[in-house]
Amino acid sequence: MSDSSAGRAASPAPAVGAPAPSSGPEKVVKLRHPWRIVVAVLLLAAVAVFVIDAAQREAFDWASVGKYVFDKRVTQAAGFTLLLTVLSMIIGVVLGIILAVMRQSPNPVLKSVAWVYLWIFRGTPVYVQLVFWGLLATIYSSIDLGVPFMEPWVSFPTKLLFNAFWLTVIGLGLNESAYMAEIVRAGLLSVDPGQHEAATALGMGWGKTMRRVVLPQAMRVIIPPTGNEVISMLKTTSLATAVPFTLELYTRTRDISVEIFNPIPLLIVASIWYLAITSVLMVGQFFLEKRFARGVGARPDAGPGPVTASMSAVELDETAAADAAIAAKHGGDAR
Amino acid sequence: MSEQTTAPAGAPAAGDASVPMVRAEHVSKSFGSNEVLKDISLEVKRGEVLCLVGPSGSGKSTFLRCINHLEQVSSGRLAVDGQLVGYREAGGRLHEMHPKEISKQRRDIGMVFQRFNLFPHMTALENVMEAPTQVKGLSKAKAKARALELLARVGLAERADYYPAHLSGGQQQRVAIARALAMDPKLMLFDEPTSALDPELVGEVLDVMKELAKTGMTMVVVTHEMGFAREVADTLVFMDGGVVVETGVPREVLANPQHQRTKAFLSKVL
Known about the structure:
The complex is a heterodimer. By secondary structure, chain A is mainly alpha-helical. Helices cover about 70% and strands about 0% of the residues of chain A. Chain A has 14 helices and 2 strands. Chain A has a two-stranded antiparallel sheet. In chain A, a hairpin with an 8-residue loop joins strand 1 and strand 2 (about 155). The relative contact order of chain A is 0.11. Residues about 1-15 and about 300-335 of chain A have low confidence and may be disordered. Chain B is of the alpha/beta class. Helices cover about 35% and strands about 25% of the residues of chain B. Chain B has a 6-stranded mixed beta sheet with strand order 8-9-10-3-11-12, with helices on both faces. In chain B, helix 3 crosses helix 4 and helix 3 (about 125-135) runs parallel beside helix 5 (about 170-180). Chain B is globular. The chains are: A mainly alpha, B alpha/beta. Chains A and B meet through helix 10, helix 11 and helix 14 of A and helix 2, strand 8, helix 3, helix 5 and helix 6 of B.
């Protein structure tokens, strides 16, 4: 090490004419933004006016809002809405990934199947699909297992297999999967083709390459729009009445408002719950995004502990030595 | 580096010391109407280090990628260790292999890319462990021990838990070499391994490759580093316009090129 520092001393000595060493960073006068403050104050005033007015306005009927917000029927409906959202999104995401991978597959059969599925489920309104699912038991009164056109081995009455809740979950989930498939496909396309190549060159098959290398990287791109889809799904569950499934938040609050002859307070109740659930889901999204940002975030050993600091000092010397070695070698290379 | 006389073209068996590691016979490759490889014939012997040089677009990278079937040859025969790559010959015709069989062939051929292509969501250690555990079914503990050993060999034992984004280009490429070595390949392919590196980082990667060459590894290296070719390679192949223009001992080809095109190219890069 003393050798290399001796070698370095031969290079120009520390700059002489530099300005005198300053003590700490210089104080800089920050740019002011007076208009921001003006606009903020105006906005706050407007909001205050609205809130004070709303608090006194009879039509909002805050007493009823307070009465029904934690009504057992309403909290149960919120639970059902959340359950519908979670279950149908699970179907949507899992099936969406499968469909997207099928569309990227080199197998033309898988590709076409995925394409036709997307064509049908994206091409018809979800409301229409839900009505169809509601009529499933009317169209197919029993579900049979066996050889077609022969006496079935087993036969289940459709009505017993699927109630309105599960038909809603299936209807929402299958429709969602078509949209998720496109989101996942965008994620897959965002991964550098070199990744696929590197995995292939290591002897990994197509499926393993997708699962271990491409999909985990695609997740970073997939999660933000998926969060969007979850929140959108939370609200689409209000269409469950088409099946008809009537225990979710919107239909349930509508039913109550019919009882008390005033729709407005229960709309507020429903909105409060939708907002609350959305907020919880957003927290979940935050943690998921963090999980899949591995390798792009901070160093694993971040935090300048004393050990790290001393280590990096050693490394600096090593780099300097390595630089010198490389320089020497290249000098001898006659290039 | 095993000394051996050129093997007669006989019925080859994998692992036979007399069979060349790579044998290309009249290999051609077209992308649409664009013929990028024209009738390439060459051999890489066991333990030999062969450097492919030439201007960009000369087909050297394409040829390298044909060796592990990342590209399919359009005609000709390309065999690694006596086995045709990606095809089986029966009844005078070539039959496509199942992707699983091709994957199996690739396990024995390590490849290092110009842009490293490390898996960014895995640490250096996980990158090196991935293929042994996932492809060979090695236990985590065994794979980890071996991976740490390989990382130490490329001088990165301390960087095992770093993600690629936190490593310099030279360090990433050394991890990539360790990753390829983890599969215990019998042949290593290098596709311009130093072209994407800052000049001061080139040396550390070339040093690792030199060490590897000393252990007797068979290597095919596409490179612009003439110093490396002269010092390490046993054979230098100059390609231009999809054909092999000149082949020989690096020192001789570089000092005294026989063809006009070789001369023109070398006068620009040396």
